[in-house]
Amino acid sequence: MALAGTGATALIACTPAAPVQRLGLGQTPSAGQIRGWDIDVRADGAGLPAGSGSVAQGRAIYGARCLACHGANGERGTAPRLAGGQGTLADKAPVLTVGSYWPYAPTLYDYIRRAMPQDSPQSLTVDEVYAVTAYTLHLNGIIGAEAVLDAASLAAIRMPNREGFRPVMQ
Amino acid sequence: MDDVVRQETGAPAPAPASPRRRRFIARGAAASLAAASGAATLPGAVQAAAPEILPDNLPPNVPQWMREPGAGFLNPPYGLPSPFEKNVLRKLPDQPAAFPTATRTPLQHLFGSTTPNGLFFERHHAGVPAIDPAQHRLMVHGLVERPLLLDMKTLLRFPAVSRSHFIECSGNGSAEFKAPGRGTVQDIHGLLSGAEWTGVRLADVLAEAGVLPAARWLLAEGADAAAMTRSFPLAKALDDALLVYGQNGEMLRPEQGYPLRLLLPGFEGNMSVKWLRRLKVGDAPFHTREETAKYTDLMPDGTARQFTFRMGVKSLITAPSARQVLDGHGFREISGLAWSGHGRITRVDVSVDGGRRWQAAALDGPVQRHALTRFRFPWRWTGQEAILQSRAVDEAGNVQPTRDALVGSVGRNSAYHYNAIQSWKVAADGEVSNVHV
């Protein structure tokens, strides 16, 4: 199609930096196919699904699915620390956690959904991910014990180290 | 010793069961064991320990391997290195890790600027998935006119390119921020490799999807258990980004992203997302966990730099290097690798006196953009203590910093982008060690 006639000439003449004409290769995924794989959540909360979860629910899920690697309060375990460390970033041995370092709360939802628990990623339901997100933020003193998170309330959270990043592009 | 030096000229090759043959096999096994323990001859005539020399294989004697026919065709058909190179291996972390992390390339054992695929360093975030290429798909969606679903057969129909590029983990060498590491160059800087990659220009695939005017950034996502994700600018995608399936002439190895990985030349290694399954076009960075909580550079004042995608200009002397022993005075070649995320290497200077005097090294050509470049410098060691250093310059004018200059500007808390000049001390007895000067 696009390769016929002058199209073929253009292909031969093109430089490595210049994209060629459309080749007509590949299929178009259905909306349902895209929905299944389109799991990312942006820093501003775009992509957060409908649903909700509480700190209390998150505490139970954490105990069953997360505690073995992250420890009782998210402060000790074989996996990276989740809690504590606020105010240590300029120390000789800074402690980088969700509460001390992460600039955006929706990123926590994104990461838990795609990669946790480590032994069975993408096995938690939407509500379970909200609950574990809520409990992790609670461990860091960012939300209270009674809190329930959904898309709007998670996106509205301001993280302690939100202003801690110097934008550069190198 | 009598039987070792006795020469049996004109005798037919001994049968495998003969006593002499058994002795030979035993010695061969001993040599292999010696190689496995690191006692084999190293590149650059630098030796960790003297290998066993068998006089009946040296002149004037005819070596054993000339007195009988050699082996037949290779078994396995996909060949292996010589059994005498058993010590040339990737290295796992010194301490057992609870989660998959990295293996390191034995740069001190390699030649030229290409890393063999079996020795290419690895870094995983949730292990190596076993992916059937027939079932693998790449989805391109977001701010595009026409979302795309591509299988491997279709990707192989796109116009292909082959280019040499390095990949370096952004954490390579970062322990040196704190103190001089005591291991080999592999232990200290082994999260670096280079290969010739074959694949499709990402610009061509994006042209196929039709990028909308609001597009500025892309999200790349892997099909591993971490669903590894990084954002990168559309400008990089249209400049030189590749979707690669070939590495040094063969399909990617599983640990390198088989059957498909992104390659962002010159950018920190984890951004070249392996097992690539999805590219989403957006108008802003996505700020994933990896590019906020992990691969950002913490400065002494407690703020962090974001984003530091390009790997800085860096070089490294690989021969001689730490834990090696110079086996005699006189001529030897100093040799190493230079690379930069900012383009081509234009110059490498070498110092043998701790940086007081510098002289230009020779560069092996062709010198390519975002590729490992081998440099060479002739040296005559007189037996006196020496500090060997190399300093690279790239086409953007970046000069590799001293360690003091680097630590002075970014402190010691960053876990990434350590590119300071590396110093190897040669002691009077020939032993080489890592020092901070």
UniProtKB/TrEMBL annotation, chain A:
Keywords, comma-separated and alphabetical: Heme, Iron, Metal-binding
Pfam family membership, one: Cytochrom_C
Transmembrane segments: none
PROSITE patterns named among the record's database cross-references: CYTC
GO molecular function, one term: electron transfer activity
Gene3D superfamilies: Cytochrome c-like domain
Residue ranges constituting the Cytochrome c domain according to the UniProt record: 53-140
UniProt protein name: C-type cytochrome
Originating species: Pseudoduganella dura
Lineage: Bacteria, Pseudomonadati, Pseudomonadota, Betaproteobacteria, Burkholderiales
UniProtKB/TrEMBL annotation, chain B:
Pfam family, one: Oxidored_molyb
Domain named Moybdenum cofactor oxidoreductase dimerisation: residues: 308-422
Taxonomic lineage: Bacteria, Pseudomonadati, Pseudomonadota, Betaproteobacteria, Burkholderiales
Oxidoreductase molybdopterin-binding domain location: 125-287
Cofactor(s) recorded in Swiss-Prot or TrEMBL: Mo-molybdopterin
Gene3D superfamilies: 2.60.40.650, Oxidoreductase, molybdopterin-binding domain (3.90.420.10)
EC number in record: 1.8.2.1
Organism (species): Pseudoduganella dura
Sequence segments annotated as region (Disordered): 1-20
Keywords per UniProt: Metal-binding, Molybdenum, Oxidoreductase
Keyword flag Oxidoreductase: yes
NCBIfam families: sulfite_DH_soxC (TIGR04555)
MF annotations from Gene Ontology: heme binding; molybdenum ion binding; molybdopterin cofactor binding; sulfite dehydrogenase activity; sulfite oxidase activity
UniProt name for this protein: Sulfite dehydrogenase
Superkingdom of the organism of origin: Bacteria
Biological process according to GO: sulfur compound metabolic process
Gene: soxC
Keyword Metal-binding: yes
